[in-house]
Amino acid sequence: MAETINANKVRYGADEVLALLEGIDTLIAAKYKKIEIFDLKHHRPDDATLRGHLLGPTGNLRAPTARIGRTLVVGFNEELMERLRKLWG
Question: In total, how many domains does the chain have?
């Protein structure tokens, strides 16, 4: 079951973004050509580091953001998106 939320109407700020990680084992944060993968289950970074990867310059959740099972993908990287399409269709 997929859920789509319009980012123009629903905002996730600094206080709300960490709640999105509930039930998430892996965070994949993409920014331009850089991709960082965080193992939240075994080596969760501090909240400031996580916010730094989840929030954009406006102080809201970066786009695009997708939850795929127990993985949260934040930000855009063309190579990463192509790999995700092949993995999860």
Answer: 1
Determine how β-strand 65-68 pairs with β-strand 34-39: unpaired
Residue 37 domain-assigned (yes or no)? yes
Q: Is the dihedral of CA 54, 58, 77, 3 positive or negative?
A: positive
- 12-26 pLDDT per residue, tens: 888 899 999 999 999
Q: What share of the chain is helix, strand, coil (3-state, %, to 5)?
A: 30, 25, 45
How is residue 18 annotated by DSSP? G
Residues of the chain above pLDDT 90, percent? 55
Give the domain range for residue 68.
14-88
Whether residue 22 lies inside any domain: the answer is yes
